[in-house]
Structures are given as structure tokens and as C-alpha cells.
Amino acid sequence: MTDAEWNSWQSSWRGATGPLPDVRARTEKEVRLHRLANVAFFLLVAIALAAAISVFADSSAAVRRIGWIIIAFCAAISIGYLSIQRGIGLSKVGNPRDALAFLERRLRVERLTAHLVRWVYAGLFVAFVIVFPGVVAKHEAPQLEMAISYSGMLVAFAVTFSAPWWVARRNRRHEEELERWRRWMDEQRL
Amino acid sequence: MTFDDLLREHGSALWRVIASYAPPGAERDDLAQDVLVAVWQALPRFRGDSSPRSFVLRIAHNRGLSHAWRRAKRAPAESAPPDVADPRPGADEQVARNQRAEQFLRHVRTLPLGQREVLALALEGLPHAEIAAIVGITPENVAVRLGRAREALRRSLEKEEAA
Question: Would the ipTM clear 0.90, i.e. be above it?
């Protein structure tokens, strides 16, 4: 290739100019949504902890035990989640292979989180089943309260215990897409 | 360095790299918006490990590839650039220059992605080492891809001239 040819191409290339959109509004919206998601997460944890702490004012030991169970649940979920999340982040603006690896790590995190939720909630459920009869023993209709509480807890238990299964089912499509993406990058020699 | 400074200094280069991945129209506007949002979000993490030009072009390149991936899934044929007449007096020369540039970009967009990404950055005047850092390959590989890209581009341009 001659220099003249290359210079001519560069001239054509640099002759191309166009307007770039103003993206501030969209970016600020995304930043707001991100902050909102973080605030929502911490708010939920704070509400759960506040609810747990408030029951310590109760004179009943059984009720206080419920508070400890909720605190243990929040602690186990938070510690497990944070340890699963460690090292997952995409620290820099990586190339597409980095992005692909990041997406694979995200799927792994979802899988592990599903297992975490399954077992931590199972622990909460068992502890609740053991402690709750003592909480309602002196109420007017303990059987009714237990029936309502246990049925709600049982539904949540069914959902959380089956989480690894339905998360895997939901992620199968993403995994196939990632595989197609990997093949496409190989074909494009990227 | 602020977002405005980056756009002022490298906005044209950004736009051209974006144009090498997307045809004119809404698709290019969307990609441009996507790239600029990514630059905006990544800017606080920019610590000066590379030049600002490399920084913004790397983002444009990565977003361009993601765009090409989504486009490949939809598999549309590239449509011809629309003829947009500029009604302003004295704008004919500018329109002709834009059309020539857009025609050239259309040829660039026909290249395989692996070659296109290297060629677009080389046309911006980046050295091989900088292109290698952006694309994530070795400088030797850059030289090989660039050679193939030039050859393919020359063939494409000659083919059109012959037609």
C-alpha cells in the first residue's frame, strides 16, 4: 500500500463528522436508579433489623428468641451474599472477553445465591417452627395464628427451597446466549 | 479532566469509531448515546493509566462490539445511507464531503469485525502498541490484522469503482 493511498483513506475517514447526542439526562436517570436500588436494599435490611430489635422490649423469652432468629437470618444472608460477591466486579472497561467472563461470574453468583437463600431460609423456617408455638401459647387462638403463620412460611419455604432449580432453569437461556456469544467472537476472531 | 473536555478533544474520533459500527440514523444515534453514557459512568474510575484518547476509544470500541453482537443476532442487512438534502445555502460542498466520508465508512463497515476494529483505530492515527492495548491483542497481531484489513478495504473500493 502506498502512503498516498493511506493518506487518502485517512482524509476520507477524518472527513466524517457528526453530532453526538447529549446524554446527561439518561445518565443521571441511570445513576438515580442505581442509587435507588442500593437504598432499597439497605432499607429492607434496616427494616428487618429494626423489627428484630424492637421485639427485645417484650418480656417473653420466646418473642426475644424470634428477634435473635431474624438477626441471625439477616447476618447469615448478608455475610454469605457479600462473600459470594467478592471479586465478581468488572473493575475496568474491559474488552468483550472480559465482559463475557463477567457475565459468567454473574450467573455463578446467582446460582450460589440461590443455594444460600435455600439453606439460610430453611434454617430460619426450622427455628421459627420450633420457637413460634411458645410465642402464641398464651394467645386467645394459638392454633389459628400458627395456621396462618406456618402456611405463609411454608409458601416462602417452597419458593426458596426450589430457588436453585428455578434459577438454573431461568439462567439456561442466558448460558446458551453466552455460549453463542463466545462462538461468535471466535468466528469474528476477536 | 471533565466529560466536556473529553468530548471537546475526542468527540470527533469517538463519532467516527461509532460510525464504523453503525449505519447512519437511529441505530447510530443509539450507539452514540450508549457509548457516551458508558464514558460518563467510567470517567470517575479513570486514573490516567492510559491516554484520555485511548480511554474513550476503548469504551467506544467495546460498546461497538457489543452493538455488533446484538446486530448480528437480529441479522439485518445494512441499508443504504439516506440521501438527506441540506437546504442551507453554500452547504453543497460540506454535503459532498460528508457523502464521500459516509461512503468510505460504509466500506469500512463491510470488513470483518476483527479487522474493522484495528483499521478504525489505525485511521485515527493510533500506534500499534496503543491499538493492541485497546483491543486486547499483541502488536504483532495488530500488524497482521491491519495488513489484511487494508487489503480487504482496497478490494472493496476497487470493486465499487469497477462497477
Answer: no
